[in-house]
Amino acid sequence: MSARMHLSPAQPSHPQEPGPPAFEAAAELLGLLADRTRLALLHELASDEADVGTLAALVGAARPAVSQHLARLRMSGLVTTRKEGRRVVYALADGRLRSLVAGALAAAGPARPGHHRV
């Protein structure tokens, strides 16, 4: 008889199972990743830190739009800043974001003509 068969139905099968606060936080994080520009910014920052001008050129977006996205990412704690002279340099706040962004891009797979994802 397996140990699992001895669990009562009221006990969770995984003792460390996430609760509602974890699902709420994960949904908020995934919501931030749901924007193409923010996802591209996090992807670029996974490689190296950069300033707004560099990031705008890399992701092909206007500098003011990139600044707004970076402000939102900073307020949510996903990116950090540091001053380098007059420049503000952005970096990922948590290395686990690299895996999350890479996983999201891998799960999306290559775009195929005529194929639309939900």
Give me the secondary-structure category.
Answer: mainly alpha
Strand segment count: 3
Average residue-wise pLDDT:
86
Query: From N to C, what is the helix and strand string?
Result: HHEHHEEH
**If helices are DSSP runs of H or I spanning 4 or more residues, what is the number of helices?**
5
Return residue spans where pLDDT drops below 50 for at least 5 consecutive residues. 1-10
Could you give a short account of the major beta sheet? Answer: 3 strands, antiparallel
The helix fraction, in percent, is 40-55%
Please state how the strands of the largest beta sheet are arranged side by side: 1-3-2
Proportion of residues in extended strands: 5-15%
- What overall form do the CA principal axes indicate? globular
**Gap from first CA to last CA:** 43 Å
Radius of gyration: 19 Å
List its traits:
single chain; 118 residues; mainly alpha; 3-stranded antiparallel beta sheet
Provide an overview of this structure.
This protein has 118 residues and is mainly alpha-helical. The chain is built from 5 helices and 3 strands. Strands 1-3-2 form a 3-stranded antiparallel β-sheet. The longest helix has 14 residues, at 20-33. The radius of gyration is 19 Å and the shape is globular. The termini are far apart.
